[in-house]
Amino acid sequence: MNPQILFLQIEIFFDRLQRGEYDHPLLLAMALENLANQAWDEVDEVYPNL
User: What Cα–Cα distance (Å) separates residue 36 from each residue in 11, 24, 42?
Assistant: First the structure.
């Protein structure tokens, strides 16, 4: 994955958060989990031997 795409998705998440789109804790948790998984995938690509 391209790191720029990850940062764009983080910006989109933050925008949606500010607009109140994550009005239920489950929706917020799902969005955060998705971002966290993508971030870990990026770490695995950058540091494959960890």
Answer: 14, 19, 10
In this structure, what are the phi and psi dihedrals at residue 42, rounded to the nearest 5 degrees? -65, -40
Helices 3-19 + 25-46 axis angle, to 10: 170
How far are the Cα atoms of 7, 21, 29, 43 from residue 50, in angstroms, in the given order?
22, 36, 27, 9
Residue range 33-37: mean pLDDT, rounded: 96
Phi and psi, residue 19, nearest 5°: -80, -5
**pLDDT at 46 exceeding the cut of 70:** yes
Give phi and psi for 38, each to the nearest 5.
-65, -40
